[in-house]
Specification:
By secondary structure, the chain is an all-alpha fold. The chain has ten helices and no strands. α2 runs parallel beside α7. It is globular, with a radius of gyration of 19 Å.
């Protein structure tokens, strides 16, 4: 038992220390997600300011600062809080002989790094797409996902506005899928993570981008705006579930883009009754009678 307590404490303080070192530029640039997130955010925000899609939308749109807080809370503060539990989970698997490579279906270690990264990116994105569909399909998961869909004006920071329970649902599943299919993260996986952050920010931004013929592969702001639409096609619990790739929506027929004015109403039924502040939104989903 002492080993597990020590592992938890070491992981927790290790994450705190790493985050602090990141703020002080005392870690390699490619692993500095703190300043990386800030640079990407400023870049995409700059695109919104210079090339606004919805020109009537304010630079400091509705809930801009709330979303900015969510961005840092989910990316750093919650990661610090939960890091010890994930380390304990990994230790538990290892103690019964389950390691990253022992259960992997493929061994990509001999592949060129560019191929490793592409396969890793595709596998990770499909795991996220599949999990995302579940968040919409099942009411007990949708209760938590409502936080993300309570955004009424779309902007880059809305990308990371989500209930902290989604971290608990998403991360273990993504880790498990990567372990099963791939075995490990490539050494240069930071490239994929930074690309995914950038694409996610752009998809939630107030910028008109469709990627032309590549729209069938890459997700985009026009497509993702309809994912947040207040009014959905009849009989469907959601559309455009893609995270970085739109490919899965076209394959599984969940794509939907009827027009591209960018002026549609966002949200969900009765969202005027949804809590407005971070604390109350964080408690939402745990109380009986909430759907």
């Amino acid at each position: 038992m002492n080993k597990y307590i020590e592992t938890f404490i070491t992981a927790f303080y290790g994450t705190v220390n790493w985050t602090w070192k990141s703020i002080l530029f005392d870690v390699p640039w490619y692993s500095n997600y703190f300043w990386g997130l800030i640079i990407i955010s400023l870049f995409v925000w700059g695109l919104e300011i210079v090339f606004p899609w919805r020109k009537q939308q304010s630079i400091f749109r509705k809930d801009f600062w709330l979303d900015a807080f969510y961005m840092f809370f989910n990316f750093f503060l919650f990661s610090i809080a939960i890091s010890g539990f994930y380390k304990l989970l990994h230790l538990s698997f290892t103690s019964i002989g389950i390691t990253d490579k022992s259960i992997a279906l493929i061994n990509p270690s001999s592949w060129p790094i560019w191929l490793q990264l592409i396969v890793f990116f595709v596998i990770l994105d499909f795991a996220q797409w599949f999990t995302h569909t579940l968040l919409h399909k099942f009411s007990f998961l949708w209760k938590f996902h409502k936080v993300h869909h309570s955004v009424k004006e779309m902007g880059f920071a809305a990308h990371l506005r989500y209930h902290w329970m989604e971290n608990i649902l998403y991360k273990p599943f993504k880790t498990f899928v990567v372990m099963i299919l791939f075995g490990f993260e490539p050494e240069q996986a930071y490239i994929i993570h930074f690309i995914a952050i950038t694409i996610g920010h752009i998809n939630h931004s107030n910028v008109y981008i469709t990627w032309g013929p590549f729209k069938y592969i890459l997700n985009n702001p026009v497509m993702h705006l309809y994912h947040h639409a207040y009014t959905l096609p009849e009989g469907r619990y959601g559309v455009n579930f893609g995270i970085s790739l739109s490919l899965w929506d076209y394959i599984f027929k969940t794509n939907y883009i009827p027009e591209d004015s960018g002026t549609i109403k966002l949200g969900f039924s009765d969202d005027d009754q949804f809590p407005k502040g971070f604390i109350r939104q964080s408690m939402y989903g745990f109380r009986k009678g909430q759907n």
